[in-house]
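Recall the central idea of this unit: under ordinary conditions, the amino acid sequence of a chain determines the structure it adopts. In this exercise we apply that idea directly, starting from the sequence alone.
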Amino acid sequence: MQQTILAIAGKPGLYKLVTRGKNNLIVEALDATHRRQPAFASDRITSLADVAMYTETDDVPLMTILESIKKLEGGKKASVDPKKASPDELHEFFTKVLPEWDRDRVKNSHIQKLIQWYNILVEAGITDFEDKVEAEEAEPAKADAKPADDKQEA
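Accordingly, the structure predicted from this sequence is:
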């Protein structure tokens, strides 16, 4: 899912990759219109899997942040309206989602766009933000560590 959801610079909303043409991609809008259109190499196309947000330490992948919003909102649309919220409301909401965000480099417009994207994805029924493969890879590593610890204690 992560690689097939795209943002295109200069075009509002999010798009789903439908197919690849010779010199373009065919994308479908994730809004109610589901309009299909070509996206060319001259368009700045970004996969959501390639987006991250600044924190005080490392950059955090967008999918992790979207998962945090989903947990905070219970899988429903965001309680904050990105167009009407004051900067203080945006900061308060984003602090709940990502407490260590970099207040110097993350702008209000970034938070607004994040909330808009989250709402678009929820409306489209896309709520599986974190890759299941990554979660499964992390679990066996923990499971492997447990028996090793048990053996050392014995």
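The two ends are 44 Å apart (CA to CA).
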